[in-house]
Amino acid sequence: MKYLFLNKRISCILLFSFCGLKAQELTLINKTDDLIIVKNEKKEISINSHSKKEINEINKITINIADKLFRNINLFLEPTEKLNITIEKDQKFVYTGDQAIIHEYINETLTNKTFGKTNVYYNIEDKKNIEELKITSEMLLADILKKCKLSNILISPDDTDSVKRLKNYIKYQWLYTLFLTFDRSNLDQAFKKEAINYYFKKYIEPDITKYSCDYSLRYLVIKTLAKNKTLLQAELPIYPIVEHTDDDNVNKYLPQNCQKQYFQEKYNYLDHTNGHNKEYYKKVLIEKFNE
User: Fold this and answer.
1) Residues 3-44: pLDDT tens digits?
2) 272 — phi, psi (to 5°)?
3) Roughly how many angstroms between the first and final C-alpha of the chain, as a whole number?
4) Closest CA to 230 of 192, 204, 198, 258
5) Collapsed DSSP state (helix, strand, coil) of residue 62
6) Which of 274, 254, 278, 251 is nearest to 264 (CA)?
7) Three state DSSP letters for 163-219
8) Which band of pLDDT confidence, cut at 50, 70 and 90, is reported for residue 276?
């Protein structure tokens, strides 16, 4: 009886403790004169003008003001952290709270920082100087890591889930712009082979067996690897084709959620240009990928 009572007491204490723990929390504050639509995975909420809403347990949201603004916001919060994002009248985003500086850098600066190097990469590649490319690209990566208070890009067993996601997001944003410059027909093939294999071996190969296109950035990287399979000095896993197309020779190297990204990218382009075949891609997304 004594031990039974003690076990029950411990269970009640633990239950109370876990109930008291708060999940990560994002507060969105709408200071515009417009209605804001926020999508979190498949959920959608509305924030009226000069109102605010709280959202829990989120990694990514889209923020939309009809005909004025569409933004993806990526989040890397620890379970007990709180972040506030204020959308000002001029559609400027202001970040306050836990990890505010890092989230502002990731969402407002990082893309411009990495894309700003593409012309530099093009010039280096045209000179076929692989060592200069390594130094230039990795100096940029080191600067990004410093801004995000990370010592390295490699995943450690001690990293929390949010840190792992942050490292992967940075890595593939950085690799995305590099691989964009590799994906051109006039690039010297010997140089392309050396470059692709260097970055693959050092940064991508450990991810290959569990590769995921949870971000569209990863889709372009794996697609470039698959398109240049003959240059790659390593094997890529082969996956069942979810829906056959003229691109099966590339898509067979893409995991299922990367194949979904293929159809999503096709649909987005055709929807934007009002292409005649967009309904086919929409149908595949709904029927084969539950989108």
Assistant:
1) 444 444 444 433 433 333 456 899 999 999 999 999 987 689
2) -65, -35
3) 54
4) 192
5) strand
6) 278
7) HHHHHHHHHHHHHHHHHHHHCCCCCCHHHHHHHHHHHHHHHHHHHHHHCCCCCHHHH
8) confident
